[in-house]
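Renewal narrative, Specific Aim 1. Our central claim is that a sequence can be written position by position from structural information alone. The example that follows is taken directly from our test logs and has not been curated for this report. It begins with the structure tokens describing the chain, in the order in which they were read.
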């Protein structure tokens, strides 16, 4: 259990690094200046995060996932990687199409970068989260109790990052209801079992924090606009 609890913190930290950091590495990549340093870091994103998802998916080595569960994991992981890769490429090319504003190539690049890739990616993201919660629910640590410090710390980090990711990606119609659903599910059915389920605690805290930020952001702006649309980031 403690291994799994620590793993949630590692996952939350690395998820934040690989999702947020590329946006701030705007310098041109010296060996090939058409791409940016952030793009190079982003190439590593699925290579680091998907294995972490897999480790969380294991829950307990003595209770390996069934063939159906592994198939579902593969489907959502493929969607995650496909969406992330599509976004990486389209976003990188999009920096070069800004001078063609209004052209068909700019419109198509924008569609792949800001719409299709985000929804494919985040459908995989919420799907993997739901699968991890399901696996944990089916495999609680009945004879152990977690101190929750790792899970709560990880949840705070991931919740804020999830809020940023969903809002800036414009996928609130998918991300917000899912977060609310996990919080409601946990409050109704899972609150008595939190100390036996580190992953459920992690996602419960994550989505509770995210929901608070969604609520505050929505009340302040009268909706959930992207950060770039209100001038907070370029």
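The sequence written for that structure reads:
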């Amino acid at each position: 259990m403690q291994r799994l609890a620590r793993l949630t913190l590692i996952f939350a930290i690395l998820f934040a690094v690989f999702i947020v950091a590329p946006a701030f590495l705007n310098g041109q990549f010296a060996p090939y200046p058409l791409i940016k340093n952030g793009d190079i870091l982003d190439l590593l994103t699925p290579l680091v995060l998907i294995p972490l998802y897999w480790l969380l998916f294991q829950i307990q080595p003595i209770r390996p996932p069934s063939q159906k569960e592994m198939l579902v994991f593969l489907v959502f992981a493929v969607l995650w990687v496909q969406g992330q890769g599509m976004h990486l490429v389209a976003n990188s090319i999009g920096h070069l199409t800004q001078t063609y504003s209004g052209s068909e190539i700019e419109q198509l690049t924008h569609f792949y970068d800001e719409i299709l890739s985000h929804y494919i990616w985040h459908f995989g993201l919420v799907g993997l989260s739901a699968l991890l919660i399901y696996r944990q629910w089916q495999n609680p640590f009945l004879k152990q109790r977690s101190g929750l410090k790792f899970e709560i710390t990880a949840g705070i980090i991931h919740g804020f990052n999830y809020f940023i990711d969903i809002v800036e990606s414009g996928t609130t119609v998918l991300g917000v209801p899912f977060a609310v659903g996990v919080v409601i599910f946990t409050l109704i059915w899972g609150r008595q079992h939190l100390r036996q389920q580190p992953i459920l605690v992690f996602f419960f805290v994550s989505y509770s924090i995210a929901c608070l930020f969604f609520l505050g952001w929505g009340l302040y702006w009268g909706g959930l606009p992207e950060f770039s649309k209100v001038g907070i980031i370029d």
